[in-house]
Amino acid sequence: MPAPVRGELADLNVFLTICRRKSFRLAASELGVSTSALSHTMRGLEERLGVRLLNRTSRSVVPTDAGEALLGHLETGFSHIRMALDELDHYRESPVGRLRINIPRDAAQLLFAPVLAKFMSMYPRLQMEITVDNTLVDIIGSGYDAGIRYGESVPKDMIAMPVTRKLRWIVVASPEYLRNSAHLPLAHPDDLLEHQCIRMRLGNGTLYKWELNRGEEALALDVPGSLILNESEMIIDTALNGFGLAYCLDVRVRPLLKSGQLIQVIPEWVCEDEPMVMYYPSRRQLHPGLRRLIEMMREATLY
């Protein structure tokens, strides 16, 4: 076996990142270097090891048999290295290093916007990257340290820590829509089936059934509607403009309800659902920076 040379671990991490992202371009973006630099690194690594590690085409990057064998050992080895470095974080007064988090847009607006500037000012040695993405991603495979999602959607093999209380979902409409549809009943959730509803596609690709409860009664309605959106702000804006009924978090529309721009309909029917949670792989210790971010969010969160 060739003797290790200076930078060998860094080059092996390049190989690991390329395999994880399945793309030189995406790996280069994550590592903050050019694709040509990554190609140069891989050529040098393969020459030193005396074996081809990657099969590259114009459309894909896949490890060779030798690369697959190496990859399995590297994933275990680098996992142990990360755990060892995480241990050191407990001896530091202030979080340092890099923290990558994947979050939905609702979390960006409700949880991060109120605390992010203050948090980064408090911990200037911490480098944080936040990706806003409503799609449920594999945070391990995509190179994230943690993610935020609604509790029920988090994979069972993850550790999940609530950052909000249980969330309340309601049905709202604009006064204009209610005037235009005054001839249609709107006293019971079943009446929603006669209305224009703004449907919602979840991050896992499924269309959401509007869940509504009244005491012990619980319904999940596959509501009708000619418009499907996957982003809360667009749903709320479209409802504001009088297009139809919207199903949304009450914390997102409280000012609009107070001003009368939106009106809650069938108000005795709501859904108390799972909180938003910060989740991370169970095999990793909680990053100190993540712990302090969660604490700050909980202190700032009123919902």
Automatic annotation (TrEMBL):
InterPro entries: LysR-type_TF_proteobact-type (IPR058163), LysR_HTH_N (IPR000847), LysR_subst-bd (IPR005119), WH-like_DNA-bd_sf (IPR036388), WH_DNA-bd_sf (IPR036390). Residues 8-64 form the HTH lysR-type domain. It comes from the Bacteria. CDD domains: PBP2_CrgA_like_5. One of its GO terms (biological process) is DNA-templated transcription. GO terms for molecular function: DNA-binding transcription factor activity; sequence-specific DNA binding. Keywords: DNA-binding, Transcription, Transcription regulation. Belongs to the LysR transcriptional regulatory family. This is D-malate degradation protein R. It comes from Cedecea lapagei.
